[in-house]
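User: Teach me something about this protein's shape.
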Amino acid sequence: MAVLELQHITKRFGSATAVDNATFEVERGEIVALLGPSGCGKTTTLRMIAGFERPDSGRIFIGGDDMALRQPYERNVGLVFQDYALFPHKTVAQNIAFGMKNRGTPRSEIRPNITRILEQVQLSGLEDRRPSALSGGQQQRVALARALVTRPDVMLLDEPLSNLDAKLRLQLRREIRGILSSFDCTSIIVTHDQDEALGLADRIVLMNKGRIEQIDTPVGLYEKPQTLFAADFIGHANWLYGSLSRTTGDAGTLVTPVGEIAVRLERGAADGPATLCIRPERLAVADPRDAAARNQLSAIVESIDAVGPDLRIWARLADGTLVQTLEKNVGRSMPPQGSTIALGFGADDCVVLPAGDIR
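Assistant: First, the predicted structure itself:
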């Protein structure tokens, strides 16, 4: 049985629908990210799970119990906020003890629990410090410890890494995932940062304008997006437009202004107008004589950006479409600006999506 279950949840504020018929489940120990742009409804969804907002329709279950009449303090959930929400006048130990005292934890158990949780979040020896004497990453781990020490059924984390610099975010992302996994903690993480969602979550609930676009694993969402929004929001993409025809089985052909492209089709794909998504790393500079690259596009190099370990090549197709490809920065010579190159990719390297123009 799922630890957390949302059934057809809808929330309106006046005439605006913040969350529209959202349904998903979270299994025990699973980390799920609510991902999407600002205003997509992810924070409102989190607040309804916590009990700070009431859905206009639909039901929320935690541990199999209906939360319809439960106040926030009656729900066994842990909360971690983006601004940490630590008491500045209390020590680390006093901050962690706060939740346990409110829940009636016996006094004899509080100190051993604090010692144990500080060791688990790698903050042993800092129990007497105040938040102002800690780094941002340490403060976030204190906030995490304060919530985890009460053993909640569900952990709710609202943009937990947004106040940290890029390098620290990457480090703490690994630490948070490890800590949550070690507690076998069922968790919901709200974020607008796709790298954060891809790196932290077992599954991602991608939201747009209050509705769920797709629920999938990070790999599935990136490699097999089901909508134009999902393909465009996650990572980078190249787009080609044309008319699709099925040849046999799952093999198809997309007729485009730059030639015919062999594609692999999902079940249910219909002939007619379609949009092709190709990730930059799947579009490789190829030898025009290379038969292994089943599809080849001729393009003229416009510029090359050195992006740390990668080289991003921008090139223009014959119909004027600007595409990008990624090559590893390993010292190889790159084609000069203005030169003509062949960009190769296989039928499995692209995704066929419904017709639509995202340019």
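Now, about its shape. Residues 51 and 72 are 5 Å apart (CA to CA). The chain is about 25% helix and 35% strand. If you'd like, I can walk through any region in more detail.
User: That's plenty for now, thanks!
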